[in-house]
Amino acid sequence: MNNHDAEAPDSSEKRRRATRSSFRAGARAARVLAFKVLYEVDIARHSAVEVFDRQDPQEGLQEQDSELARDIVRGVLSHRSEIDQRIQEHAPSWPIDQLSAVERNILRIATFELLFNTERVPTAVAINEAVELAKMFGGDAASRFINGVLGQTARTIEHTQSTLSESSGDVVAGGNE
User: Fold this and answer.
1) Which residues contact 150 (CB under 8 A, 6 or more apart)?
2) 86-110 CB burial, b ≥16 within 10 A, e <16
3) 3-class secondary structure, 95
């Protein structure tokens, strides 16, 4: 094996890491854009379409990341009442309208991803990205608060899915007897 052959796996591994890293950076930038749009819609009551169309070019995202941001905004807005109900269940001491707009909208994005976007975003990624957004935009305790609420939400979702899986297994098993 010559030196060139020995270097090839290392360079291809570096390219794979760089690709994964840039994908994560693009997805994070998409979440930042979605957050900014949802924040302005929440605070100023501006049209989501108008805010997105104004903010998107300023962010300079690649098309796939811009689409991810658009999907997040649409998803959060179309499922907002269910998302807010889930947040309220796991932060009962903090009525949704009394949360800071930063925390409320970060929780909405992550809860949307936990409930409705699980094929695209694993649970740990949704929570970690929300914590990172909280570090960027929130106060000192925001990241811990968001991590706690989302951890509870994820456990509840996993428990519900586990219970449903067991129940459907019982129905199938019972039907074959």
Assistant:
1) 90, 107, 110, 111, 114, 126, 127, 130
2) bbeebbeebebeebeebbbbbbbbb
3) coil
Q: Is 132 exposed, middle or buried (0-12, 13-18, 19+ CB in 10 A)?
A: middle
Give, for all 177 residues of the chain, the pLDDT tens digit.
Answer: 444 444 444 444 443 343 344 447 899 999 999 999 999 999 999 999 999 999 999 999 999 999 999 999 999 999 999 999 999 999 999 999 999 999 999 999 999 999 999 888 999 999 999 999 999 999 889 999 999 999 999 999 998 887 877 766 554 444 444
Which two three-digit tokens encode residue 70? Answer: 């658009």
Domains of the chain plus CATH, in order, are 9-167 (1.10.940.10)
Give me the count of residues in the chain. Answer: 177
Q: Which residue has the tokens 């929440």?
A: 42
Cα–Cα distance, 170 to 165 (Å, whole number): 9
Query: Residue 46 in 3-state DSSP?
Result: coil
Please give the Cα distance from 28 to 130 (Å, whole number).
9
